[in-house]
Amino acid sequence: MAKYFSYVVLNLCVIFLNSCQAKLCLYEEKCMCHIDEYSYISLATIVSPDKKFFRDTYENISYFFTGCEDATFNSKDYNLIGNKTNLTGSLIKCSTVVVNNTITDYNCSIIGYAKDIKYDLVPNTLYEYQIVYSNSTSVSKSLPSIRLACDNINRTDLKIISSDTDALILYSPVVCIHHNPHYSLSTGSIFCVIFFTISLIYFIGGGCIMYFLRGARGAEMIPNFDFWASIPGLVNDGLIFVFSGCRPFSVSTAETYDRI
Question: Fewest CB atoms within 10 A around its CB: which of 17, 53, 181, 193?
Answer without folding.
Answer: 181
